[in-house]
Specification:
The protein is α+β, with helices and mostly antiparallel strands. The chain has 2 helices and 8 strands. The strands form 2 sheets. A 6-stranded mixed beta sheet has the order 2-1-8-7-4-3, covered by helices on one side. A two-stranded antiparallel sheet has the order 5-6. The termini are far apart.
């Protein structure tokens, strides 16, 4: 009977950790979802889902540093060739590197657009990696890197 009691006590002790983990994951998801909402809205409002030192890498290899610099650059792109373009989340995978650091991997589908070089893009799949950190009691995006998924022809 003692081993069963120890297992039951152990399970009760684990419950707060599971709830804490669920709360952390939900908070990280909220920050990531705020980014995608901002994308769909053209990055017009404040980027309060990101850290002041936000680092953004675009699928074309461009890099922006600093929350307001990145937000302004993304807003400019969304005023031109990405105007009206949306990016819909398909799947989100969250892993914790530390108590206050999470890595989110998101696959999404971006609506059609025409790039500045005149190439027409149909709906594209993207995979984006986010580094989300807890600062001042809030989970915020510190880094994101976006890559276009290229479907390779089958042989």
């Amino acid at each position: 009977m003692k081993p069963i009691g120890i297992v039951i006590i152990g399970l009760f002790l684990m419950l707060p950790c599971a709830a804490l983990s669920d709360d952390r994951e939900a908070a990280v998801r909220t920050a990531i979802q705020a980014f995608y909402k901002a994308f769909d809205d053209g990055f017009v409002g404040p980027a309060d889902y990101a850290t002041e030192d936000w680092n953004h890498i675009s699928p074309y290899g461009g890099r922006g540093r600093g929350r307001e610099t990145v937000r302004a650059a993304l807003n400019e792109v969304h005023k031109t060739f990405l105007k009206g373009t949306t990016d819909t989340i398909e799947n989100v995978d969250i892993r914790f590197a530390a108590q206050d650091v999470a890595v989110g991997t998101v696959t999404s589908t971006m609506s059609p657009f025409t790039s500045p070089d005149g190439v027409k893009h149909g709906a594209e799949r993207h995979i984006r990696t986010f580094v989300v950190v807890k600062r001042g009691g809030r989970w915020l995006i510190m880094h994101d890197h976006n890559t276009t998924v290229i479907e390779l022809p089958t042989r």
